[in-house]
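Worked example 2:
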Amino acid sequence: MEIIKAIDLIENVDKYDVILLGTNVYNTLGNGAQLAFRTKYPYIQDFNLKTQYGDVTKMGTILECYEENSPTIILLYITKGFNFQPHKEKDYLSYESLDKCLQLVNILYKGKKIASPFLGASKFDGNGDKDKIIDIMKRRLIDVDYTLYDYYQYSRQELNDMARHAFVALPTEERHKISRAHKKESRKKPNKYFNGKTKITEHVK
C-alpha cells in the first residue's frame, strides 16, 4: 500500500485499472472528490441513479461504473447520508460497510492496480478516523496494488467561491467577453430541470 499526499487523484487516473470512491445511499455525489469525478466522468452518476434512492441495504455494497474508453470507477456505499449535525456526530462513517466494500474489491479486482482518495475520511463521505481507515485498508486490500491519495477535497461552495474570485480578478473587458459567451451558450441549451411546465428532478423514476 502506497500513500501519496497533496496530489489530486483525478490528475493520475490513467495510471490505474480501477478507481474507488466512497459515497452515500442517497445517490448524491455533490462535493469533494465525488463532485470532481462526477463532473469529469458523468456516467458515474448515471449508474448511481439506477440504484434505489435512500436504500440502506446498499450499505457495504459496491457499484462498478464504466464507459468505453473511460476509467472503471467503483462506488462504495459507506455512509447513510451527509452529516447535517457535525456538532453532535463528527464521525458518521460506517466502518463495517467500508470493511465489507474493501473485501469485495480485494476479491473481484485481485491483481489490479487500484487507487482512491482517502475513503471515508473527508467530511463528505464519513469524516472518519484516518488511522482506523488505514488499518482496514491494510487488512483487506492485500491482493491488489493499492495507492491511497491523501489530499484536501473542496466543497461545491468553495469551488464556486474560487471561481467567482478568479472571475472578478480578470480585466473588465475579459469579464464582459466571458459573460457574453456564457449567455450565448445558455440560450442554445434546454433547461435540464424544466420542460416548460413541470420541474424535473434527478430522482423522478
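The CA atoms of residues 90 and 155 lie 17 Å apart. The two ends are 41 Å apart (CA to CA).
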